[in-house]
Batch of 4 targets.
Target 1
Amino acid sequence: MQDEAGAPLTAAEPTPSRPPEPARERRGRLRTLVVAIAAVTLVLDQATKVWALAALTPGTPVDLVGSLIRLNLIRNAGAAFSLGDGSTWLLTLVALLILGWVVVGIRRIDHPAWVVPLGLLLGGAVGNLVDRLVREPGPGRGHVVDFIDYFGLFIGNVADVAIVVAAGVIMVLAYRGVPLGSRRDAEHAAEPDDA
């Protein structure tokens, strides 16, 4: 029986607050966010490099946090810790391969947790690749502008910070089993995407 006059005999059907978003629209929005984060990262990286070249003198460090964190301008022909100084062209190729992996990842993205790390990785990789392509001594062999000196151990830039943060977040996502794309993506990876 009814507890109150006018109360329905059965529970009301819950009404969804919003209809489910089609997968293609959601992916399009996620891709746009990845590209926006990458663009901001790239602009910030290149702007700080231009500033560092104009404001800093090579070999004259400027203390930020005592001698722990300094601004110290160098032109790096190698990778982190100046490894591979004689293989700049190989580092350019590695950067292009990373970009290829990120582009594939962006095409498959279906989880918002991947937006920030893919955007940071894309922006950071492109930031250092720009240096390799346009800076001296020439295309594909250009030296990366580094200026953030960490504890006297290595010197990096904003692109490097973005790449390291992205790698950390990607490790956490992989450990937690957060999928980049849906199972359907893995099954239909070879199909063209209309989006």
Note: Helices lie at 23-55, 88-108, 115-134, 158-176, 183-187.
Target 2
Amino acid sequence: MESKKYTTGDRFMLLRKVKGFKQEEMADILKIDPKTLSKIENNEVQPKIDLIERFVDVLNISIEDFFRFSENNIFHNNIHESSQFELNNTKLVSSDEIYLKLLEEKEKRIQEKDKLLEEKNKLIESLYLELKQNKI
């Protein structure tokens, strides 16, 4: 089966949505008019390379990953030609389903990071107390 070819506009739209940004929010961050971003995502205009560089910086991905974007490398999930999106082995069809699943996934990752940060802070605190005790 042949892989779908994604345009620059497709990449902008799909990566923006997967990372949880609204179109207006991303346009504001990139300091461009939301209409311009809409035209990019609808393949009406091609963005200049400096805009692509700012976009990938915001999303914290490499420019190589942006251009190598495929249905197999986006968060280890698949985007199928039938416009279905698969997240954690759950097929989603509507944009609302996709958005809600992505929010759930984002919240789960935030909780995991918060737990790691809490463990790190406890370790730092115990090391600090140990150092303090040894110096007194």
Note: Helices lie at 8-18, 23-30, 34-41, 49-59, 63-67, 95-135.
Target 3
Amino acid sequence: MSVNVDPKPTMRRYSPDQKEQAVRMVFALRAELGTSQGTVKRVADQLGIGVESVRGWVKQAEIDSGRRPGTSSAESEEVKRLRQENRELRRANEILQRAASFFGAELDRRQK
């Protein structure tokens, strides 16, 4: 008898509403119990979501709300946007430099 073992866990995408609900539940449970011990696991088990997924969402929510140090979602998006803009500007600059070099060489040839 062969056992089919998938070496890679399946990736599930969760909607922003599902993530927000899980985070709210963790915060509510923490407030109710007065402790953070085991709250993420309880909520994850209740919703059928991986513990590490919920833990990451809670951590990011704490960062975004200023409860924990780190890079907020807004800062992360801004850095991503600026890096993309930087890549585009470098590409445009390279094209302009090549064009200037090409047309400069053409002018030199015509003047001789």
Note: The chain has two domains: 14-70, 72-112.
Target 4
Amino acid sequence: MTLLNIFSVVPIQYYIFISAVLFSVGVLGVLFRRNAIIIFMSVELMLNSVNLLLVAFSTYHNDASGQVFVFFVMAVAAAEVAVGLAILVTIFKNVHSIDIDELKSLKN
């Protein structure tokens, strides 16, 4: 069974529901967690839920532009993770913690 057949068998509403659940979990992770690495993972989860919707709608409408856009979103997300983790490693070397509440003291 090809990828196009799989997308035609499963209704688009299922992809919308799964993507909404993943995005909501990501938002809750950003809002309620205090660990910076967990926050980065939650942002990645939100980006991946949007990518899932883009691929689903792109396949549903037989247009490859959504899939091309997913490629660029993934490239930007990888760059964001690389820069974010480099900043976190530098902060951890200086402060010895990556707790967001303790990082607020760096403003002073």
Note: The two ends are 59 Å apart (CA to CA).
